[in-house]
Design goal:
The protein has about 350 residues and is an all-alpha fold. The chain contains 15 helices and 4 strands. The strands form 2 sheets. A two-stranded antiparallel ribbon has the order 1-2. A two-stranded antiparallel ribbon has the order 3-4. Helix content is about 70%, strand content about 5%. The relative contact order is 0.17. Helix 8 crosses helix 12.
């Protein structure tokens, strides 16, 4: 049985108990989360640093550039959050996005420039390969990391085979793809609205539904979840299918942004960025812990940092170094908080 968070109280003038300021602060911190506060502090520091170095960095135009740049990685990070909470990992999301991008452009071209056929076909492909990932993990009894690592190579290879390794189609004459890449609603790019819509839907799913509670339960203790009557196989396949669908949406946006289907360019390395953002956002890589809010904060931080380094003319290779360092730092912090024993050292 769960117990309510205890709160220190002191009597007010009428003799009734009221929370002390210290206990109220602790309650607020518990609700917001120390991880989110840390990310917010880091974001403020990054904005202040690069804003002082370049006056245009904090302009509304550049903020929109940052927001659009992180949309694709944001979509992948949000769905990666669900997979990690469920106790899995999907290293193949970048290749899935590349395959979906090529599919959307090639079907668009072959159906007489019908954008909806192209988008629909790519989402169907995403659902199919996501389900395939889940089936390999469950029925093949393959570790999720190995299964999706194989998918990373396989889906990339399929995308290159069907496209002959080159960009396919040209979609910027189509009003639907132009709307996705350049359209705005209430002053914000359509791509950003799509990210916010997906993030909101996933947040509601995880926080306010039995499905979300079961996902947390599976990631926290799969044995206990099975004994509680949760169908693990069904949930895992559904989670990986969702990952494939959202990766396909990211692939469609990649096509819209670049103007053509990209088998590799634009999608390579997205899986590492998605995992980094989810880990920075507070997802425990062992499963059972995480949230969309922290992931979005981490995505915004990574985008602001990358844009700032680009604006300052820093070599792009250093951005990869920074990304790897952030992933290691996020995992180290998690291990320290969980008080995990150091590998190879006595308890």
């Amino acid at each position: 049985m769960t117990t309510a968070l205890s709160v220190e109280r002191e009597p007010d003038k009428s003799g009734n108990d009221r929370p002390t300021s210290a206990s109220a602060a602790r309650t607020w911190l518990a609700r917001v989360g120390g991880q989110n506060l840390g990310l917010t502090g880091a974001m403020i520091a990054v904005l202040a640093l690069f804003g002082s170095l370049n006056s245009n960095y904090l302009s509304w135009d550049n903020i929109q550039v940052i927001a659009e740049a992180v949309t694709i990685i944001g979509l992948l990070a949000v769905v990666q959050t669900v997979v990690i909470i469920c106790g899995g990992l999907d290293i193949s999301v970048g290749s899935q996005a590349g395959l979906a991008s090529v599919t959307s452009a090639m079907v668009f071209t072959s159906t007489g420039s019908n954008a909806f056929f192209g988008i629909g076909a790519s989402i169907a492909i995403g659902a199919l390969i996501g389900t395939l990932n889940g089936a390999v993990i469950i029925y093949g009894r393959v570790n999720p990391t190995i299964a999706t690592l194989a998918g990373l190579a396989a889906y990339k290879g399929v995308a290159q085979l069907i496209s002959n390794g080159s960009a396919q189609g040209y979609v910027l004459n189509d009003s639907v793809f132009v709307f996705l890449s350049r359209g705005k609603i209430a002053g914000l790019p359509v791509m950003v609205w799509l990210l916010l819509l997906v993030a909101a839907a996933v947040h509601v799913l995880l926080k306010y539904t039995d499905i979300g509670r079961n996902i947390f339960a599976i990631g926290g203790n799969d044995t206990a979840a099975r004994l509680a009557g949760i169908n693990l196989n069904k949930y895992l396949i559904a989670v990986y299918a969702l990952s494939g669908i959202v990766a396909a949406v990211a692939g469609v946006l990649l096509t819209a942004r670049t103007g053509s289907g990209q088998p590799v360019s634009g999608s390579e390395g997205l899986e590492l960025q998605a995992i980094t953002a989810a880990a920075l956002g507070g997802c425990a890589l062992k499963g059972g812990k995480g949230g969309v809010g922290g992931t979005l904060l981490a995505v915004a931080l990574l985008g602001a940092l990358q844009n700032g380094l680009t604006v300052q003319g820093i070599n792009a290779f250093w951005q990869n170094v920074a990304q790897g360092a952030l992933l290691v730092a996020a995992v180290v912090i998690q291990q320290r908080r969980a008080r995990e024993r150091a590998v190879g050292l006595p308890a």
